[in-house]
Model the fold of this input.
Amino acid sequence: MTWFRNHYVCTVCEGHWHLEAAETDSAHCPHCRAYDVAPYRSDDFSRVIDRDGSRFVVMECTKVTRRGPNWRVVKRFDTQDAARAFVAAR
Ligand SMILES: [Zn+2]
Done:
């Protein structure tokens, strides 16, 4: 499953915000309530790197429910660089 962090700038009030969602959907401005502001950028957050003590864990979004994304541990690494290289290679 894909999981995105969408970045928005409202053309009406120039307000900035971001939302995490399963789609790169338009959203209503939380500052002035303008309708259907399209995201200007969407980052793929389907795989993220989390810390677990001194180790780094690559997590993957397996499905999205009404409560949000479900995460599954893919692999653990000793260094952040190794985890980043693993994510970049997939
Ligand atoms: Zn606005």
Notes: The pocket of zinc ion is lined by residues 10, 12-13, 15, 29, 31-32, 34 (CB under 6 Å). Strands lie at 4-9, 16-21, 41-44, 47-52, 55-65, 68-77.
